[in-house]
Write a structure and sequence with these properties.
The protein is an alpha+beta fold. It has six domains: 134 residues, Rossmann fold (3-Layer(aba) Sandwich); 177 residues, Topoisomerase I, domain 2 (Orthogonal Bundle), CATH 1.10.460.10; 121 residues, Topoisomerase I, domain 3 (Distorted Sandwich), CATH 2.70.20; 119 residues, Topoisomerase I, domain 4 (Orthogonal Bundle); 99 residues; 97 residues, no CATH class. The protein has 23 helices and 32 strands. The strands form eight sheets. Strands 2-3-4-1-7-8 form a six-stranded mixed sheet. A six-stranded antiparallel barrel has the order 9-10-13-12-11-14. Strands 25-26-27-28-32 form a five-stranded antiparallel sheet. Helix 5 packs parallel to helix 18. It is globular, with a radius of gyration of 35 Å. The two termini are 51 Å apart. The protein binds one DNA strand of 8 nucleotides through strand 5, helix 3 and helix 5. Keywords: DNA-binding, Isomerase, Topoisomerase. Its EC number is 5.6.2.1. Belongs to the type IA topoisomerase family.
Length: 861
DNA sequence: GCAAGGTC
């Protein structure tokens, strides 16, 4: 029997599609990466009985990057990134082992059906999948077609089944347009980012951003925020005047009337109108109208609208809202949260999800009534052909979901119920009056039926008293006419919700990437989120945008993305050649880049005003090995040492603190050593600022400390303080932390393993002798006389931390704590209680530390 | 160390 491999874009879709096509009779298993599943069933394909294997990727299989040597910032001129620097495709997520997985599953298959999302990115992923799988599939008989593309517009039985019988071919042009986009974004973004970062970080000490980035999406996003800032700055309040009239409606009620001229900006003219009306005793009714109006129920929910409401009403940032929504999705509470679609397919079962909510403590009444009286068809929205609108899939309570997730879920559910509710109907009454020569109006609204506003009370029509019934010619006594002086007020900073709307309008980013761009400009310290989730640009953000305006405004205009996308669409439609468009666009931006580089002084003038030069920043800390003067420690991101005499800057490891290390010097370059520490519970090691930036030995990497230095005799080096191979990671060596006493520690120089050794020793040295069992270096320990753990009166002991029975009892394995819990990666085990984390000595199957010399030898390869 | 786009 022949086998048909089918591939969707994400695991959840593979499952839904397989369930539809197999009519529920499939067998499922996890793939080798633990993330993607394979669903198998038999059926017919091109008239024969076959075995179907439905699986998925996880988004893009490959990502584009420069060849390794072009990623060395100080060796490559950013201008080379436009053409000379070759690019290569790498696996997008090496942990998922996607290529291997696809090849294992694709081996021996005869046909492949591509079920990737029906957009350009999906089309591109089709070819990534084919590149991986075609080489291992069975050879086709001559002329036989083996590659098919399924095109579907929603995940419904009819659409999926129709797609299966109308298979087409993947569209190479669409895929190529994505290849072009990837290459443009990479080359342009990296060139500008590297140039700006190096230029400004080399001059200023208090930029407070480790990166001065540029990108066709993030830069215009920042541009919107600064544009609003500029409007606020340049705003000049103007005084204006309005007339306000009050008439008596009944004995104890008066109506406030609005002036039809709204306002005037000339006091004397306002005064003239006041004079003409204030003596009038009566207001005459010119017209009275009553109209039934409706406030429409909302369109079904898509991602962007969810993010807007999450920010403006729930006070949740887009990134956080998206993470919360993803969790609700993977736990089965809501449907797929990334969708542009606001329209339910005709066949969509709306009552199913609604019935789920029929017993919910908060909205059972509304839902039951809707089910009994019949739901309203949702409004016709936009169908982007991706996924159905965001819909609650099962009922949940606050206790079950907890705080944030509940609030988002509650909103999604109320919104869903609203979409199948009726519109809100209200009566709008308008009375138009004349007082002397001037006209005034009064409007009032009364609710006829609340409709959806019952479930979305924040959308309710505000309660107002109904207006009196009257007709043309009726008169009301004027109680008062007065003139009010007011001032125009500046706009406020842009809210996140407004920014999302602007980005969507200008096609900057996608539903999935909009939160990422907003997050980027926050993390790079270009804007800060203020109360009400308003985005206020920082000095750095303002200077950058004003600089672009000065040099080349196109770099920050919202059209930069759409202009390029227009070109890319020509490729997708087959109207332009991929190479030509790519070459031409790169050429345009290369010219822009050179012009930008030549004109950078224009941006620098603005920088000078807000930021201090390197030489004027920081505090003196350690001595330079070249001129022996003090270098200044610049704490602001990225932290570094600067020698103003030599005009050299030495970057330091980030996310830690730096101290002078006993005025000790590096034997190689005479620089004073500093001590890097990740916090009281973490790791620390000495570091030579010069070696760390210019590694003295071929095997040493940049950015490392003395604990990775292979100097044969320096007392701070790995050679002198190294003990043995790390018990967890492949390449690390456990090194004695010479500063850790009296709570002595040994820490891996690569991963975050830390072993707490001896609490009450006043001296610990690494011996030249090695353990006869495991060949790790022995430790020579002098314990405190009063609190020695040794039997009898002994205070001195030499032994192996792994094998010596005395030491084994004293060693406890932990993981270094980072400065802040946020910096800890996922899934990292934290230090455990005494005992459990201890190394199980000599237990079969556990990895023994390699001997010290062979571990060291690995460094010299 | 960089972009933007998928997805986990």
């Amino acid at each position: 029997m022949k086998t048909v491999l089918m591939v969707a874009e994400k695991p959840s879709l593979a499952q839904s599609i397989a369930r539809i096509l197999s009519r529920g009779s499939m067998s499922s298993r996890k793939g080798l990466n633990g993330t993607c599943s394979v669903h198998e069933y038999t059926g017919t394909f091109t008239g024969q009985l076959v075995r179907f294997k439905m699986t998925s990727v996880c988004g893009h299989v490959m990502t584009l990057d420069f060849l390794g040597k072009y990623n060395k910032w100080d060796k490559v001129d950013p201008a080379e990134l436009f053409s000379q620097a070759p690019t290569e495709k790498k696996e997008a997520n090496p942990k998922l082992n996607m290529v291997k997985f696809l090849q294992v599953e694709g081996k021996g298959c005869d046909y492949i059906v591509l079920w990737l999302d029906c957009d350009k990115e999906g089309e591109n992923i089709c070819f990534e999948v084919l590149d991986a799988v075609l080489p291992v599939m069975n050879q086709a008989h001559s002329g036989e077609k083996t590659v098919f593309r399924a095109r579907f517009s929603s995940i419904t039985d009819t659409d999926i089944c129709t797609a299966m019988v109308r298979l087409g071919e993947p569209d190479h042009n669409e895929a190529l347009s994505v290849d072009a986009r990837q290459e443009l974004d990479l080359r342009i973004g990296c060139a500008f980012t590297r140039f700006q970062t190096k230029y400004f970080q080399g001059k200023y000490g208090n930029l407070d951003s480790s990166l001065i980035s540029f990108g066709p999406c993030q830069t215009p996003t920042l541009g919107f925020c600064v544009e609003r800032h500029d409007k606020i700055q340049s705003f000049k309040p103007e005084t204006y005047w309005v007339l306000q009239a009050k008439v008596d409606a009944d004995k104890d009620r008066s109506l406030l009337l609005d002036w039809d001229r709204v306002r005037v900006f000339d006091r004397e003219i306002a005064q003239m109108f006041l004079n003409m009306t204030k003596l009038e005793k009566e207001a005459q009714v010119e017209t009275m109208s009553r109209k039934e109006k409706a406030k429409q129920r909302p369109l079904a929910l898509n991602t962007v609208e969810m993010l807007r409401v999450a920010s403006s009403s729930l006070g949740m940032g887009p990134q956080h809202a998206m993470q919360t929504a993803e969790r609700l999705y993977t736990q089965g509470y809501i449907s797929y949260p990334r969708t542009e679609t606001t329209h339910y397919p005709e066949s969509f079962d709306l009552k199913g999800p609604l019935r789920q909510q029929a017993n919910h403590p908060y909205w059972a009444d509304t839902v039951k009534r809707l089910l009994a009286e019949g739901i309203n068809r949702p409004r016709k929205g936009h169908d982007a052909g991706d996924h159905p609108p965001i819909t609650p899939m099962k009922s949940a309570t606050e206790a079950e979901l907890g705080g944030e997730a509940w609030r988002l879920y509650e909103y999604i559910t109320r919104h869903f119920i609203a979409t199948v509710s009726h519109d809100c109907k209200y009566l709008q009454s308008t009375i138009s009056f004349r007082i002397g020569p001037e006209r005034f109006t009064c409007t009032g609204k009364t609710v006829i039926s609340p409709g959806f506003t019952e479930i979305m009370p924040w959308q309710s029509v505000p309660l107002e008293e109904s207006l009196p019934t009257c007709q043309r010619g009726d008169t009301f006594a004027v109680a008062e006419v007065k003139m009010l002086e007011k001032q125009t007020s500046p706009p406020d900073y842009l809210t996140e919700a407004e920014l999302i709307t602007l980005m969507e309008k200008h096609g900057i980013g996608t539903d999935a990437s909009i939160p990422v761009h907003i997050n980027n400009i926050c993390q790079r310290n270009y804007v800060v989120v203020e109360s009400g989730r308003r985005l206020k640009p920082t000095n750095l953000g303002i200077v950058l945008v004003h600089g672009y305006y000065k040099i080349d405004a196109e770099l920050v205009l919202p059209t930069i993305r759409s202009a390029v996308e227009k070109q890319l669409n020509l490729i997708a439609q087959g109207k332009a050649d991929y190479r030509q468009v790519l070459g031409h666009t790169l050429d345009v931006f290369k010219r822009k880049f050179h012009y930008f580089v030549d004109s950078i002084a224009g941006m620098d003038e603005l920088m000078e005003v807000s930021f201090s030069p390197l030489a004027a920043t920081g505090k003196p800390l350690s001595r330079c090995g070249k001129c022996h003067r003090f270098m200044k420690y610049i704490q602001a991101k990225p932290s570094r040492l600067h020698c103003s005499h030599c005009d050299e800057t030495y970057t330091l490891p980030q996310n830690g603190t730096i101290k002078l290390y006993k005025e000790l010097r590096c034997p190689l370059d005479d620089f004073e050593l500093v001590l890097w520490s990740s916090g009281s519970r973490g790791k620390s090691y000495p570091l030579c600022p010069y070696c760390s930036n210019h590694p003295p030995f071929r095997d040493m990497k940049k950015g490392t400390g003395c604990n990775e230095c292979t100097h044969p005799t320096c007392q701070h080096s790995l050679s002198m303080l190294g003990i043995g191979q790390c018990v967890e990671c492949e390449s690390g060596v456990l090194v004695l932390d010479p500063t850790s006493g009296p709570k002595w520690r040994v820490a891996c120089n690569r991963c975050n393993v830390v072993a707490h050794c001896f609490e009450n020793a006043h001296r610990v040295r690494v011996s030249a002798d090695t353990c006869s069992t495991c060949e790790a270096a022995l430790l020579d320990v002098d314990f405190n006389k009063a609190r020695s753990p040794l039997p009898g009166d002994g205070t001195q002991h030499t032994g192996c931390v792994f094998c010596d029975p005395v030491f084994q009892e004293l060693v406890e394995l932990k993981h270094a704590a980072s400065c802040h819990p946020m910096h800890r990666g996922p899934g990292r085990r934290q230090g455990r209680g005494r005992g459990r984390g201890r190394r199980p000595a000599g237990k079969p199957g556990t990895r023994r530390p390699k001997d010290k010399m062979s571990a060291l030898a690995a460094y010299f390869v």
